Amino acid sequence: LPRALFKLDEATRSNALTLLEPEDAEDLIEELHESQGADLIEELSAQQAAALLDEIDSDQRVDILAEMTKADAEAIIREMSPDEARDALALLAYGKETAGGLMITEYLAYRAKMTIDDVLNDLRQNAEKYSDYAVQYVYVISETGVLEGCVRLRDLVLSPGDTPLEEISIKNPFNVKVTDSLEELERFFNRYVFFGVPVVDNFSHLVGVVQRADVQKAHGDATLKSFQ
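The chain above was modelled as a monomer; its predicted structure follows.
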């Protein structure tokens, strides 16, 4: 489908993309390299582009914005929803090959004193929103947002509903810093067989999750650039 789309002339391609619902266009954009996605989205109006980027995962959204001219990126960010715009600006401030630049901000985190029933009720009430999250753990944080632990979904489902999260959480989970380099992330994932790892700032606040697949992709892109 992406190959077919790029065989169209620019005007027809833009019209085709605007005929899709944002959720469907998102699926298409996710099949493209970020440079291709940026080229495609830059053909839209800032308002149309913002509606589309609002639907895309935070890490890919930032990669696409980083491929655009500064003027185009700023115009689109101004049209995005306030929460997504703030998130994009924060991620753009990190280097592309750091944990901060590679992390996603779609994760589940709950206060340590909350019970399992509290968490399960939130999951049910927001099932549609969370359906696209790549979730294997929920993270446990303090009242100020400091990462304190994580809970496997299996333990969440099988424990009594009145149990506080802090009683079943894995304490002091592995984490990486927002400033950790791609090389440091590669060493981490070579040592530990994890799907993803939480990212914390200099004050140990949970700010995102880096996925193994994104580190592997970034490594492949960096290797390709070294040959060019």
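The mean pLDDT is 89.
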